[in-house]
Specification:
Elements lengths: L14 E2 L1 H4 L5 H8 L6 E6 L1 E14 L6 E14 H11 L2 E9 L2 H11 L4 E8 L5 E8 L2 E8 L7 H17 L2 E5 L10 H11 L3 E5 L13 E2 L3 H8 L6 H15 L3 E5 L5 E5 L2 E5 L12 H14 L4 H16 L9 H8 L12 H13 L4 E6 L6 H12 L3 E7 L1 H8 L8 H9 L6 E5 L5 H7 L3 E5 L10 H6 L3 E5 L7 H9 L1
Parallel strand pairs: 1-14, 2-5, 2-9, 3-7, 5-6, 9-10, 10-11, 15-16, 15-18, 16-17, 18-19
Antiparallel strand pairs: 3-4, 7-8, 12-13, 13-14
């Protein structure tokens, strides 16, 4: 749908309840819709940033000023801004063409490496000599953020660079299903660049989603969907928006003034409101608890783009985006929502099964735990026919850390280690039993014979094995010691063995 066919008048005066808004998108249909997200392609154009996180401990005050001294333990970097939209799209399984401008500095080089390391991303990061790549550095100690330091250049990109960016954008848009403009007001989409891209996308028959910034929404004229938050919407219309009715009126005003196909206003704890040619739909917030809203807007835009590119209607797309937002605000730190997260939110199951996660999800969760000062422990094994000895070891492990991740050998891995008659139970069954234990916080199945690759990805603070090992024979012990982690040899409960139990059953 192009801007010329969106319509410019106010939406009909019809407000749907959440249930009515989801008519035609029942529970089963939403689960089926999640499967479509990975079979899509999206162009993302916007302001790329580098997010740095510095973690340490603060135990004293500086003699130079009344400020804490942070002893740095580790640092983490990830794509931010429009780059976070890309992260969210790849987490959903979508293929992404990413077009952005960066500086010829170390941060730009680091960002290029991080974007290039994302799966299914075709990066078009154009370098402008002398420009500063935007970097946001956050400092944490004992789980608390102490300071954020920004380095940026928000001036418009060079005109010659802008021409090149628009040319590249035309080509990538033609090769993908939908276009996202992620505007953080850092210069990439300054002036008429956004309008040129929107016009080019419509000429190619592609829809455009805009995550806007500033007060001049005329720069996005004709966009198919804009996604301001409540504050941004208020700035755009120049007045306070204290009620649902006022939010709807403001969205209708923007549609009439700028020919937007739809306006999706994100409203934090109050959910979302969609205003389009069909009317008005309100979506209540999905999060049970809100821990961190960082990056939630990027998650919404990414989910909308993947859903619409997958052929879903606007209301179903908005519903999935609302669920995705509920997932990420329930996590700590800038997070992403994966298909498994969406399915877990849609599936009426106990909390135990939600502990069973992929390697990528386990790594992200472990990092979020560490950001708030939790000590992350790890142990591993086959755990076939769980017995009191296993339970005793896991309880000891959990007593020495704040969160415990269990690496579980896959069925194929167990067969290679223990022979063709094992395991007795499938990895799905073994994972479900482990996840039901209060001492276990996450379960991650690994395919390799040893957990070394999983350990290197997780970087646990504590590695636990039974006392029948020595520290030297524990897989990964040297690696863990290199970065200051500890190894614990847990006391064994005598008289319990899976092999012995299997032997008794077969005798």
């Amino acid at each position: 749908m192009t801007g010329s066919t969106n319509g410019t008048g106010p939406a009909p005066d019809s407000t749907e309840s959440a249930q009515d808004a989801h008519r035609g998108a029942d529970h089963g249909a939403l689960i089926e819709a999640v499967g479509r997200l990975a079979r899509t392609s999206v162009t993302v154009i916007g302001d790329a940033m580098l997010d740095r996180y510095v973690y340490g401990t603060a135990t004293r005050i500086s003699p130079e000023a009344p400020i804490p001294v942070v002893a740095v333990d580790r640092e983490l970097a990830m794509p931010g801004g429009a780059g976070n939209v890309v992260r969210n799209l790849t987490a959903l399984g979508a293929a992404v063409a990413f077009v952005a401008a960066i500086g010829d500095d170390q941060a730009g080089s680091d960002l290029t490496s991080l974007i290039g390391g994302q799966p299914n991303v075709e990066p078009w990061l154009i370098v402008q000599g002398g420009r500063t790549t935007t970097v946001k550095t956050r400092y944490f100690a004992q789980g608390q953020q102490l300071l954020r330091a920004d380095r940026e250049d928000d001036s418009p990109i060079h005109p010659k660079l802008a021409e090149r960016l628009v040319r590249i954008a035309r080509d990538t848009i033609a090769a993908t299903s939908i276009c996202v403009l992620s505007d953080y007001a850092k210069g990439t989409l300054a002036g008429d660049i956004a309008q040129q891209i929107i016009d080019s996308a419509h000429a190619a028959g592609r829809r455009v989603i805009v995550d806007p910034k500033g007060t001049d929404y005329g720069r996005y004229r004709g966009a198919d969907l804009v996604t301001p938050n409540r504050r941004e919407l208020a700035l755009a219309v120049g007045r306070r928006l204290d009620s649902e009715v006022e939010i709807v009126a403001a969205a209708q005003e923007l549609r009439a003034a700028f020919g937007f196909g739809a306006v999706l206003a994100t409203r934090a704890e109050d959910g979302m409101t969609l205003v389009d040619a069909e009317g008005v739909a309100h979506f209540p917030a999905e999060a049970a608890e809100v821990f961190d809203v960082s990056g939630a807007g990027d998650t919404v835009v990414a989910t909308l783009a993947a859903a619409l590119a997958g052929g879903l209607d606007m209301r179903t797309a908005a519903r999935l985006a609302n669920i995705a937002a509920g997932v990420v605000v329930g996590k700590i730190g800038t997070a992403v929502a994966r298909p498994a997260d969406l399915l877990a939110a849609l599936t009426p199951q106990g909390g135990a099964l939600r502990k069973i996660v992929t390697r990528e999800a386990a790594v992200e969760q472990a990092e979020r735990w560490r950001r708030v000062g939790y000590r992350v422990g790890f142990t591993n094994g086959c755990f076939d026919l769980l017995h009191p000895g296993h339970v005793h070891l896991l309880e000891q492990a959990r007593a020495h850390c704040d969160r415990l991740v269990v690496g579980l050998n896959s069925d194929a891995s167990v067969r290679r280690l223990k022979g063709p008659t094992r395991p007795v139970q499938t990895d799905a069954a073994r994972a479900a039993v482990l996840a039901s234990l209060a001492s276990v916080d996450l379960v991650c199945v690994f395919e390799e014979d040893t957990p070394e690759e999983l350990l290197r990805a997780l970087r646990p603070d504590l590695l636990v094995k039974g006392a029948d090992y020595t520290v030297a024979t524990v897989v990964g012990s040297e690696f863990v010691a290199e970065y200051g982690g500890k190894v614990l040899l847990a006391e064994l409960l005598p008289g319990h063995s899976t092999t012995a139990t299997v032997g008794k059953l077969m005798s």
